[in-house]
Amino acid sequence: MGKGKTTASNLPFVSPSAAKQPKQPSKQALALHSKWQQTAKDMGGGRIVVKKEQAKELVKEILHDSFRPMNITEIYQVSSRSKSQATD
Fold this sequence. Notes:
58% of the residues lie in helices and 0% in strands. It starts with 15 loop residues before the first helix and ends with a helix. It is built from 4 helices and no strands. It is an all-alpha fold. It has helices at 16-19, 27-42, 52-66, 72-87. It has a domain at 25-83.
């Protein structure tokens, strides 16, 4: 090929399917993932969430489920328990 004008006929051919194939994860990455997965299961979870939007939704759901209305007796019991733990 000379220094002439670049055209479609003198460009190297690259298969579109070959260019878009995702890389396979390395053995080290797979081992790390399985370690994290096992830790998640041991902690009572079941999956690892990587995407930020999914994580936000799960955290929001967990926080929503963990907070509930309390009456005055429950508030007193919680505050007295936390005070006794602080003095120990």
